[in-house]
Amino acid sequence: MNDFMQDLRVNSGFGGIVLSPVGSQCVSKEDYNLIKRKGLAVVDCSWARLSDVPFVKLRCGAPRLLPWLVAANPVNYGRPCELSCVEALSAALLICGEEETANLLLGKFKWGHAFLSLNRELLKAYSECENSADIISVQNSWLSQQRQVPKVPPDAAEGASNDSEDEEGSSNDSEDGLPPLERNMNHLSLQESDDESE
């Protein structure tokens, strides 16, 4: 991966696009030329320790957010918006039209294809958007459709979460080694937490 990536200090300065929670707009096709010229970076930190990262020291003219996507990495599988660095970079590349590079990055991880599978429809929709506003519109439309899904009884949700932890090759896995996507309950969990906050 050294051919593709290098480490930078937070205060080093970076002229390209940086995927960061302090961005004010989503990465989109509008960012493609800047990514081609100056590159794409991600802030490598734990979701649990975001408050410890000195984002004010980040010297970058183009911080960007990612739209709503679901993690497939083993630590955060099925959790929305808790992507690993490689998932974040690959998502941005896919959104901007760099499918080959994104696939190359994800191919380095045995779970990489799961990220594409879990987010296939959304990534396709995002990649067809021309700008950040279009992406936000697609995201919001998607999320409102997901909230209309009927709730599943708690015992069914528990069974589904156990399926995602099965070992490879179990009889519950689909042909490509992924858990069946129709049992992914992350959208329903999001809905339930929204209902509780009302």
Automatic annotation (TrEMBL):
Transmembrane segments annotated in the record for this chain = none
Q: What is this protein called?
A: 16S/18S rRNA aminocarboxypropyltransferase Tsr3 C-terminal domain-containing protein
Coiled coil feature spans: none
> Acidic residues compositional bias: what residue ranges?
163-176
Q: What is the lineage of its organism?
A: Eukaryota, Viridiplantae, Streptophyta, Embryophyta, Tracheophyta
Q: Which organism is it from?
A: Gossypium arboreum
Q: Note the PANTHER family from the entry.
A: 18S RRNA AMINOCARBOXYPROPYLTRANSFERASE (PTHR20426:SF0), RIBOSOME BIOGENESIS PROTEIN TSR3 HOMOLOG (PTHR20426)
Q: Which InterPro entries match?
A: Tsr3-like, Tsr3_C
Q: Which UniProt keywords apply?
A: Cytoplasm, Ribosome biogenesis, rRNA processing, S-adenosyl-L-methionine, Transferase
- Tell me which domain of life the UniProt entry assigns to the organism this sequence originates from: Eukaryota
Q: Where is the 16S/18S rRNA aminocarboxypropyltransferase Tsr3 C-terminal domain?
A: 17-143
What Pfam families does UniProt report for this protein, alphabetically?
Answer: Ribo_biogen_C
Q: Where is this region: Disordered?
A: 147-198
